[in-house]
Amino acid sequence: MKGSGSEASQATEVAQPKERSASHCELHFLLVGNGPYANRGCEAIVRGTMAILRKQFGAAITATVCTYGPPEVAAQQAAAEVDPGISHLPLTFRRWSVQWVLGQIAKRVSPRFPPFWSGLTPALARSCVALQVGGDNYSLDYGSPYRFIALDHLIWFHRVPVCLWGASIGPFDADPAVARAMLPHLERSKALFIRESASFEYLCSHGIRSNVFRVSDPAFAMEGAIPTARRTGLAIPPHVVGLNFSALMAKYLTQGDVQLLVNRCADIVACVASRTRRPVLLVPHVFSRKYQRDDRWLLSRIAVSASSRTCQKVLCLESDLTAAEIKGVISQCDAFAGARMHATIASLSSFVPTLSFAYSAKSRGLNQDVFGCLEFCLEPDQLKPDVVAAGIADLLANREGIQRHLRYRIPQITDEAYSAGRLLQDVIDGGKSAGAQL
User: Fewer CB within 10 A of the terminal residue: the chain, N end or C end?
Assistant: First the structure.
């Protein structure tokens, strides 16, 4: 389907200024559209992206990470940043500030009206390309993608090319107005680096091919780091099973009732522990001051409830570990099952047999790419104690065979993540690499 109607016309009618040549600017990259590092998946994307860029463009490259969140969050990230090549900027403003008011006006006029992020101008002046690294921003998973469209227009206004980086895209079929605006917008982007097959096939089915490149999630390029017991705050027992749940699951399992979700997940944990006769470690991957978004808040309550239902040990990892350290913890599990996609990427890329609790197309696409099937992907209506416990028991029973497959397949997927750097080099140098190829 090609875009049609007034929204599509508005999305494409702006004259496209000539983009600057990468050969005329220093190798500075703009990473935009990401959430705070408190979402360890967002951090994993940045860490993997920097590894990919350095391998392709050299160790001297630098990047500005522009984070959606309060200015104080960007300041905290800058103060704690361990990568000397990264600087940080916020992409949101305090409510009722002049810039916030202007942005609200722009939102109601048209997403083509560039927002007033004046603080971004110096970074844009230095950058050879802007990478939209938000992963699944260009979808309906979190509402309308207006702010990302507006951000793209601002970047184009400064003559910097925009590439979607390690992205899942769509589907937009549930909102035809968004589809009519978004599909032409995507065609205008310099390149779409797609991380899983479901999004790739969606774009091709709608005629978007020339600027589409099939890669894999940049988080596959992030190395894990096993933390000390002092860092974890607990001793990880041998032969442990790791589990991750998200409050987002309440939307699909319990009509939004979080307490009911706690009870449901506690039943699952207790059943897994009793069926496998192994300790269970609950692993958070997203942290937030708002309990509705905080894995640690949810998992600590699940651990307390589940512990009363089984004689096996149930632990919750509550330390404030980095994305690499959480990957190191997950690598010590004999099996893992998770709702957060980047928690499952950490597991799979550590060769740990893994189940995905899928509530979006991206998890299904990831499983299809890794295993060639959806055998290890559980839909919301399958998330019942006996079904999950049986699935993990099967992982453990077939652990050696699954690990052999992962040791064969994951290096290929990791190379696909690094291939994005090679393709990006060609794109920003004005190359003619054909898109839409597996």
Answer: C
The three-state secondary structure class of 205 is helix
- 81 and 37 in contact (C-beta within 8 Å)? no
CA–CA separation, 345 vs 386, rounded Å?
Answer: 24
Residue 410 neighbours by CB under 8 Å, 6+ apart? 220, 348, 349, 351, 370
Lowest-pLDDT range of 171-180, 190-199, 426-435: 426-435
pLDDT of residue 279: 98
pLDDT of 410: 98
Q: Each residue of 146-176: b (16+ CB within 10 Å) or e?
A: ebbbbbbbbbbebebbbbbbbbbbbbbeeee
Query: What pLDDT digit, counting tens, does each position of 192-207 carry?
Result: 999 988 899 999 999 9
Tell whether 434 is covered by a domain.
Answer: no
Do 142 and 267 sit in the same domain of this protein?
no
Average of per-residue pLDDT values in the chain: 87
pLDDT digits (tens, 9 = 90+) for 72-94: 888 999 999 999 999 999 877 66
Residues 247 and 154 in one domain: no
Residues 78 and 143 grouped into a single domain: yes
Strand partners, 213: 193
**Residue 438 within any structural domain of the chain:** no
Q: Which two tokens stand for residue 334?
A: 């004999």
Q: Are residues 193 and 332 in the same domain?
A: no
Contacts of 31 (CB under 8 A, 6+ apart): 46, 49, 63, 64, 65, 66, 130, 131, 133, 165
pLDDT in tens, 4-47: 333 333 333 333 344 554 444 469 999 999 889 999 999 999 99
Residue-range definition of the domain harbouring residue 293: 229-352+354-397
Question: What are the structure tokens assigned to 254, written together?
Answer: 């319990």
9, 107: one domain? yes
63 domain residue, yes or no: yes
Domain count for the chain: 2
In a domain, 109, yes or no: yes
Shared-domain flag, residues 246 and 113: no
Residue pair 278/334 in contact by the 8 Å Cβ criterion:
yes
CATH number of 204's domain: 3.40.50.2000
The amino acid present at 42, given as its one-letter code, is: C
